[in-house]
Design goal:
437 residues, Rossmann fold, 4 domains, six-stranded mixed beta sheet, four-stranded parallel beta sheet, 13 helices, 20% strand
């Protein structure tokens, strides 16, 4: 990675045949991208521009072609390619960023026609993930996603080594190099998958421990940079890192939250985005497993975003939850960043989302109401028990207080009569003390 003027790592163009950790090519510290897209009814490029900003790239213009599908050879149609070349020169752009995933042929032809490096949306997202991955598992997941993405694009890398002509006896060093690189990439992918399987096994052991504890689990889900980590900190008193950038949180973070005195696990998950590359969905499967296994999802939506942005965010989250098999889980919608809203915006949000909770992780507004709502939503995970616990069995009584929180108790000559709500999975532990209500 090159170093920019502000000391941050400026991405370098991906070496698609090997190490793909870089993003952008060239010696200049500041990259200036012309954003292009193909869409039948227009396209909002604000998300692509925000992705580029997160990657350390300035957006200096945009160009949208209205057509039903991208051109199979060059993404943009021939006439629009000429227009893009003129627009890039006028804006002094030194990079073309496309708002879709390009095929190797589209990327190669577009670069040749424009005379500028071309990156697609997936390349930008993968580069951001590579920069933000901190845990060993996160780094393995990102490298796996990069290699799988790049494997299909190796064919065009070695064209400068290939011989003209074909047939028996004309196999050139370029083709040999392609075969070598593909073999190395496939070997590395197999190694990464084995390592991730091992990590997944470790995570499964940890999950089994939590399931034995039978604590209800709530997963925070939502669009990237919607304020999930801020809400986690506000509810649990944690100090999880928070920054105003996309995909700041990649590794799931689990904290204990007490609701009505009962311990509950609150998990902060990786943020979603529209057109999330399937390589990342596959690579982060173990991480997203935490979302699938939750009893309740808290969908955090940026309440300060515009109506159009909120619609994109909601649609992206819904599509991703369906893709990972979590679409049917019960869900609570939380409109965050309430401290940034005026009265008119608050009224508009309440009108459009009458069942949503309006909160602010910074000021604490709405957090008590949210906890009460979560308590109601989790009632289905609890079972009422009526017990008579002998005084001699103080350990069971202490455990009951821990898992049930608030209990109704009465001291009697035979022992302590207890009425409580406990997690359904734990009710059997206290069955020997059960009495008629």
């Amino acid at each position: 990675m090159e170093r920019g003027r502000n000391g941050r790592s400026a991405p370098t163009h991906a070496q698609r045949g090997g190490d793909a950790n870089g993003l952008l090519e060239g010696q200049r510290a500041r990259q200036r991208a012309l954003c292009v897209a193909v869409a039948p009814d227009g396209e909002d490029l604000s998300e692509l521009e925000e992705l580029l900003r997160t990657a350390g790239v300035a957006s200096v213009g945009e160009l949208i072609q209205h057509r039903d599908a991208p051109h199979p050879n060059s993404y943009l149609g021939p006439g629009k390619v000429s227009e893009a070349k003129a627009a890039a020169a006028a804006a002094d752009a030194n990079l073309i960023a496309c708002d879709d995933e390009l095929s190797a042929r589209q990327e190669r032809n577009l670069e040749q026609a424009l005379g500028l490096p071309v990156v697609d949306r997936t390349t930008v997202i993968l580069d951001i993930f590579a920069a933000h991955a901190n845990s060993a598992e996160g780094k393995l997941q990102v490298e796996l996603a990069q290699l799988e993405y790049n494997l299909a694009r190796m064919r065009g890398l070695w064209s400068h080594l290939e011989r003209l002509g074909g047939g028996i006896g004309t196999r050139g060093p370029g083709e040999t190099q392609i075969e070598t690189d593909r073999r190395l990439a496939r070997d590395r992918i197999a190694t990464l998958r084995r390592r991730l399987d091992h990590v997944s096994g470790t995570r499964a052991v940890q999950r089994a421990e939590r399931e034995r504890a039978a604590l209800p689990t709530i997963a925070l889900v939502g669009y990237t940079n919607a304020g999930k980590s801020t809400l986690l900190n506000a509810l649990t008193g944690s100090d999880v890192g928070v920054r105003d950038r996309l995909f700041h949180t990649l590794d799931p973070t689990t904290r204990t939250l007490r609701i009505a005195g009962r311990p509950t696990l609150l998990i902060d998950t990786v943020g979603f985005i529209s057109k999330l590359p399937h390589q990342l969905v596959d690579a982060f499967g173990a991480t997203l497993e935490e979302t699938r296994r939750a009893e309740l999802l808290v969908h955090v939506l940026d309440g300060s975003a515009s109506l159009e942005q909120r619609e994109v965010m909601e649609r992206s989250v819904a599509e991703t939850l369906e893709e990972i098999g979590a679409g049917a889980l019960p869900r609570v919608l939380v409109l965050g960043k309430a401290d940034l809203l005026d009265e008119h915006q608050r009224d508009e949000l309440q009108l459009r989302h009458p069942d949503a909770m309006l909160v602010s992780g910074h000021t604490g507004e709405g957090l008590e109401d949210l906890l009460e709502r979560l308590e109601r939503e989790l009632l289905h995970t609890l079972r009422p028990v009526h017990l008579l616990v002998p005084y001699a069995d103080g350990g069971s009584l202490a455990e009951l207080h821990e898992v049930a929180g608030e209990v109704s108790r009465e001291d009697t000559p035979e022992g302590v009569r207890v009425d409580a709500l406990v997690p359904a999975h734990l009710a059997q532990r206290f069955a020997r003390f059960a009495i008629a209500s």
